[in-house]
Amino acid sequence: MEQVQYNFQDKVALVTGSTSGIGLATAQLLAKSGAQVIVTGRDKERGDTALATLPSSTLQPVYIQTDNSNNDTIFALFHEIQNRFGRLDIAVNNAAQESGIGKPLHEFEPHEYEDAMGANLRGVWLCMKQEIKLMLEQKPSGGAIVNVASVNGLGGAAMGSLYSAAKAAIIALAKSAAQEVATANIRINVLAPGAHRTPMLQKAFESQVNGDQTKVPEIEQMYLSYIPQKRIADPQEAAAAILWLCSDAASYITGQTTIVDGGMSAMLR
Questions:
Q1: Pfam families, alphabetically (predicted)?
Q2: Is 105 contained in some domain?
Q3: How far apart are the first and last CA of the chain?
Q4: HSE on the CB side for 177, CA within 13 Å?
Q5: Cα–Cα–Cα angle for 7, 11, 12, nearest 5°?
């Protein structure tokens, strides 16, 4: 896939949950475009592995171990960003967990609700709170924030009620905050990806067949029947849309949701 080239030279860019999937692809493209990239994730070994895949020139990408369901590690993350870089130009809130999927709403327990909302909603809210504070200090340069949601957040999904609810909520957070900080030149948008070839999608497939690997191809074929383009996307395709939203090419776009799903949602609207 040929990538459009953007110039993010000397921009400080945070990508949460960037040790795999869409987050990693986004970090790779940002680094390739000249940004100072901050990679986060819960597992240091995976973080170091992710760093090794990022191109570097004069700006070395860094990994900061962060658990998006843990308030203290989020505060520590932004304290380190402030002390180390003194600014934040781009933030991609991608960190998520597969909590809140795999069974109907009435079978979830309260602790499962807390788990699903912790990483997939509260963690995003806390990150946005700190990102906006940093960017407000940079007025008039501002910054760009992208929340990575899901097409499930646009209309819900059977066997994924809590996950879908969290993703719907981070869309609403972005739309609300975008109106609050627009005059400070801070743009906040959402990317709603459909099926992309990521570890989380694989787990979603497996959850529908109780882990029976032999039945996963059947689930994938069922997904493909709902997608006009008849294929699962590469994470780089979502990353390309994220970079566009962060770039000057999208300078008059804020509070919007960009859907990258191969046309699936077009069949439902």
A1: adh_short_C2
A2: yes
A3: 28
A4: 27
A5: 140
CATH number of 190's domain: 3.40.50.720
Distance CA 153, CA 82 (A): 32
- With both helix axes pointing from N to C terminus, report the angle between 123-136 and 71-84 in degrees, rounded to the nearest 10: 20
Catalytic residue among 163, 223, 226, 252: 163
Q: Quick check: 2 pLDDT over 70?
A: no
Residues in a beta bridge with 187: 144
Q: Which residue has the higher pLDDT, 201 or 136?
A: 136
Report the distance separating Cα 12 and Cα 241, nearest Å: 18
Specify if 255 maps to a domain: yes
Establish whether 63 is a catalytic residue: no
Tens-digit pLDDT profile for residues 78-105: 999 999 999 999 999 999 988 888 889 9
Q: Which domain holds residue 82?
A: 12-195+234-267
Rounded to whole angstroms, how far apart are CA atoms 133 and 94? Answer: 19
φ/ψ region of 21 (left if φ > 0, alpha if ψ in -120 to 50, else beta) reads: left
Q: What is the rounded distance in angstroms from the CA atom of residue 268 to the CA atom of residue 152? A: 12
- Alpha carbon of 259 to those of 50, 87, 195, 266: distances in Å? 26, 29, 11, 10
Residue 58 scores a pLDDT above 70? no
Residue 179 is assigned to a structural domain of this protein: yes
Phi-psi region of 157 (alpha: psi -120 to 50; beta: other; left: phi over 0): beta
User: How many folded domains does the chain comprise?
Assistant: 1
DSSP β-ladder status, 257-260 and 186-193: parallel
Helix, coil or strand: residue 222 = helix
